[in-house]
Design goal:
single chain; 154 residues; alpha/beta; Cytidine Deaminase, domain 2; eight-stranded mixed sheet; three-stranded parallel sheet; disordered N terminus
Length: 154
């Protein structure tokens, strides 16, 4: 699997919509997933199952699904550009746990906050520090979405 370290990021409009939809479907639990592309534009969502002991307050991606998607990404020559999850009951700001468990410093961490006015914010988390990033929403090819119930069965 290939990683990409980017200073700014472009995300397709369809991917933003997919992340918001996933967050709404999982609420009141947190959702999580991978954000990938072949260039420097996030153009695909891989939904992951949240198997955390307390999914309303934490996320922990199913390792089996993560492994399967990593193999698929490698086969498709895709790059892991980001990781997303939701905060259904709080702001789209990394929690201390989010920062502590940010294991991919090259990745953009996207957090979705639900509520009356949903927010999508992006961060770079390196060495225990979270720095908000500006992202650009672009119109591009429709998002290529996969989820545990559909894509891994193939």
């Amino acid at each position: 699997m290939s990683y990409s370290s980017v200073e700014s990021v472009k995300i397709t409009r369809g991917v933003i919509a997919e992340i918001l939809q996933h967050a709404r479907q999982c609420a009141p639990n947190e959702c999580c997933g991978l954000l990938v592309g072949r260039g420097e534009i996030i153009e695909r969502v891989y939904r992951l199952s949240n198997i955390a002991e307390d999914p309303r307050r934490r996320y922990f991606a199913d390792p089996r699904e993560l492994f399967q998607y990593q193999k698929r990404m490698r086969a498709r020559r895709e790059k892991l550009l980001g990781i997303y999850h939701s905060h259904p009951q709080s702001a789209a700001v990394p929690s201390p746990t989010d920062i502590e468990q940010a294991f991919y410093p090259e990745a953009v961490y996207v957090i979705v906050s639900l509520g009356p006015r949903p927010q999508v914010r992006a961060y770079r988390i390196v060495g225990g520090e979270a720095k908000e990033m500006v992202y650009e929403i672009v119109d591009d090819a429709p998002p290529r979405c996969a989820g545990p119930s559909t894509e891994l069965a193939k």
